[in-house]
Predict the structure.
Amino acid sequence: MLESEAINAERMRADFPILSRKVHGKRLVYLDNAATTQKPQAVIDALVRFYSTYNSNVHRSVHTLGEEATEAYEGSRKKTAEFVGAKPRDLVFVRGTTEAINLVGSAWGEKNVKKGDVIVATKMEHHSNIVPWQQLAKRNGASLKYVGLDTDGTLDLAGFEDLLREAPRLVALTHCSNVLGTVNDVTKLCSMAKMAGATTLVDGAQSVPHMPVDVEEIGSDFYAFSGHKMLGPTGIGALVARKGLLEEMDPFQTGGEMIREVFDDHSTWNDVPYKFEAGTVNIADAIGLGAAVDYLDAIGMERVRDHELRLLDYAFKELASVKGLKIYGPSDTRSRAGVISFNYADVHPHDLATILDEEGIAIRSGHHCAQPLMRWLDVPATSRASFYIYNAHDDVDALKAGIVKAGGLFKV
Amino acid sequence: MSSADIYREIILDYYRHPRNFGKLERFDIASRDTNPLCGDEIEMQVKVGEGMKIEDVKFTGKGCAISQAAASMLTELAKGKPLEWVRLLAKEDVFKMLGNPDLGPSRVKCALLGMKVLKTGAYGYLGAHNDDPEESDLP
Ligand SMILES: Cc1ncc(COP(=O)(O)O)c(C=O)c1O
């Protein structure tokens, strides 16, 4: 494939074994990519290859298998770090975005967030970028405040500036909303936060899989993402920290691997990033993530973004003709990721999802782990379709037909 | 599973025009529960009358057609029955009430939310524990 060539999603489907299965006798139309993506054969093969040819623990083993496993695990760290413009030593492998944020909440937060301090989050955060801060605030006597949203579902910049005047200790915000699809200008927001003296954490769960990301350019102190949302296995993700920051932090979990020396009454810590990877790490899935990064690198993230924007434009155009369908979030597709949350007449999202499932279409319905945002939208739930590289116009057409069918059943 | 089978006219009618929807001015039992999966929410109030009978019952809530229709139908069924009837109520009774649609495992929870709320309230009032084996495997 040439760099400039558009993605041929239909051809790409051949790389994803699951996409050839049927659901209720119909072609699987997978539109729940914001929840998790499907896996290409290359990722599945990497896992099988590890377990069937060089399965071993890492770092401690001198034998051949151990050396091969360590090389692959560390190779994966290097690839994943480079994929987001970071250095391998600044990347900690974790279980996913949730664990990355909890790690920061504990290992950085306990030491740095004090009584009376302010933590700033936004109304469009996933619960994983809210609850750890609520808990930290409760433990340390700090307060958690939220940046509101403008009516189009973008961040209220004036409100953000107001909160920055309170000199927050931390600003935690998402790069991309998993509900509204809003893409935040995190480079600008992090720079503003930094000027106000705040440490910044960006939730990259919905951005790293879908667009080029360079953490150095963004300038965040912490950046978190999940492997399973970018073609990789579940159970692996990354926390990327600004150079030198990990060194200043206390350990998260303690035990084997993360130590340098253990005495009866005290211990000393291993170098970063190992200091934050206690116990036997998730070797296989880290290697699987490396394979996913290779796959995405071969396509090129600019092309992934272009493909999704094109699909988003098509979906907006098609869905606009469905009467009674309301899409949430920015109307300008350029400031959105490939996520469409909507409601259709008085058909509850859960009912819609059931009806679509019968057509082999997988969408998500519910609160999408963003209840404060649902309250702001003043809806109990939404339906959400989210795209990836293997989605094409035929998937949007199927979605539209399914919605129309639901309309018929519900006599909308 | 066929959605035409689930979303029959009568279910949609109860969804859009729920019977016994609202609050009681005076009640003896109030209970509430949610289905975290989809945010369905049901609250029920029961006025207990002579002979431990359900003199009146109303519900409020929001959620999908299945959860709301099932709760509403259940209140109609429950009115005038002894509280003990609630105790003996089984999942199958609710499914039958809905016309035995073939609900997938995730939608079963929606259908049973109303029963769960009613039972929780009744058990609390009767001073009994919700140790019904039928109940314990409820999500
Ligand atoms: C924006 C956002 N943040 C965080 C998460 C949590 O990711 P994980 O469940 O992989 O930890 C998700 C995924 O649902 C998400 O969409």
Observations:
- The CA atoms of residues 4 and 21 of chain B lie 25 Å apart.
- Chain B has one domain: 3-124.
